[in-house]
Amino acid sequence: MSAATAPSPGGARAAKVLAPVVVGLLGLAVWQFLVSVVEVSPYLLPGPAEIVEEWQANSEAIREAFWITGVNAFVGLVVGSLAGVALASLASWAGWVEGMFAWVVAGLAVVPIVALAPVLNSMYGADSEYGRRVIAGIAAFVPVYVNSVRGLHQTTALHRDLMRSYAASGWQRFRTLTLPSATPFVLTGIRVASSLAVISALVAEYFGGPRGGLGSFISTSAATSAYARAWAYVAAAIVLGLVAYVVTLLLERLVQRLLPTGATP
């Protein structure tokens, strides 16, 4: 493609923004068509206008539930990420530790939230949010650990030998070689974990614990046949997931800009 016909950077960025907006508007149009023309039953698919009305009527409750679920997901994400990075660092230092953790991580990756949530809620009590945060932390731990281990193994023996030839200390090798190489992988793991933490916190709220959070209100609204209200809480959960993803994506890009040139994979 010639320089005259190549799209400008500004045009490419605009296309990335407009494409999902157009797809979303088309989806809403099809949704409204199904409700208004095809006359799909409200209990199967409430109309967008009904959901907006329920959002406005329950805005304060949605805001409080949004905050509760967001805090649970955030705490779980932070604790799970710190644990994942710490254990990955230990695993990269000793091969036998990595082999031991591999089975533990594989087991945590397949833990069913629907089975674990009632157990933790019973352990911590009906008025405690700790069970939900533990579940979010477990969900966040796995991708952060896996990506961190992979990143910490990016340095080759040739790189390490070169640093030793310059008489670099262990801390200097870690700071100038291992850490910059591993950071993009760690940030990718945190970005993936952010969505999983939100989803896990939502699912955990279905099964006991204090009555609060978006998951709890989705469940109670659906149980009382307030389907439009339940969809309003679902929409708030989608917004929460998008916020978590965008924040971690911006953090990833910011840190990558601060890394030395060539540190990113």
CATH class of the largest domain, named Mainly Alpha
Question: Which homologous superfamily in CATH is the superfamily of the largest domain?
Answer: MetI-like
Radius of gyration: 23 Å
Helix content: over 70%
Fraction in beta strands: under 5%
What is the 3D form? globular
Structural domains: how many:
2
> How many extended strands?
0
Rounded average pLDDT: 81
The largest β sheet comes out as:
none
Q: What is the number of helical segments per DSSP (H or I, 4+ residues)?
A: 10
Task: Report the uncertain regions.
Answer: none
Q: In CATH terms, what is the architecture of the largest domain?
A: Orthogonal Bundle
Gap between N and C termini, in Å? Answer: 27 Å
Describe the structure in your own words.
- The protein has 265 residues and is mostly helical.
- The protein has two domains: 1-40; 46-258, MetI-like fold, CATH 1.10.3720.
- The protein has helices spanning 9-36, 48-57, 59-93, 95-109, 113-124, 130-152, 157-165, 170-204, 214-223, 227-258.
- The longest helix is centred in the N-terminal third of the chain and has 35 residues, at 59-93.
- The model has no long low-confidence stretch (mean pLDDT 81).
